[in-house]
Design brief:
Elements (H helix, E strand, L loop, with lengths): L2 H13 L7 E3 L4 H23 L3 H22 L2 E3 L2 H13 L8 H7 L14 H10 L7 H24 L2
Antiparallel strand pairs: 1-2
Length: 169
């Protein structure tokens, strides 16, 4: 991720006080990190709850937010606050490249968020693509095999995020 993206994110964080839409350096905050982790676990349980209720499209969103809130926990633990998804992902990518995050790879991150993905979403098994299909199409039902893949892959990635958080405790 280019440094200019991060610079813009930090600049936005300085500019807008409480309602900023960027990144801020804060004091390392293990309480906030734990709160984000609790929310991520809540979202993980919602994946199944939504599916059982017939809201598979929301299962896909819950999977995304499981992972996203886990990433916010990593940032809070390291002294950052983010209010923008692309800024969050840019900073996580930067920390991975600098080897400050050891349990996630750039490829893992691209399963969660990849701005370059635009083709063949229906055939993809990446979490990001499943979420985009379910969020931006008229589909509301996940096939059982899609649901199982979504839940399994979310758990695998979330386990890596949790390992990263535990590494810094």
């Amino acid at each position: 991720m280019p440094q200019d993206k991060l610079d813009k994110c930090f600049e936005e964080g300085k500019r807008s006080c409480e309602r900023h839409k960027g990144l801020r350096v804060i004091k390392n905050n293990s309480v906030l990190a734990q709160d984000y982790l609790t929310k991520a676990i809540h979202n993980f349980h919602a994946i199944t709850d939504f599916y059982k209720l017939g809201y598979g499209d929301w299962s896909a969103s819950a999977a995304f937010y499981t992972l996203y809130h886990g990433l916010l926990a990593i940032l809070a633990q390291r002294g950052y606050e983010s209010r923008n998804q692309s800024c969050t992902l840019a900073l996580i990518e930067d920390l991975i490249r600098k080897k400050e995050i050891e349990n996630l790879t750039i490829d893992n991150l691209k399963e969660i968020f990849d701005k370059d993905v635009t083709e063949h979403l229906e055939q993809s098994s990446k979490l990001l693509d499943i979420r985009k299909v379910m969020q931006y199409s008229t589909r509301t039902v996940l096939k059982e095999e899609e649901f199982e893949l979504l839940k399994k892959r979310t758990k695998e990635l979330f386990d890596k995020i949790r390992l990263e958080i535990e590494r810094k405790i």
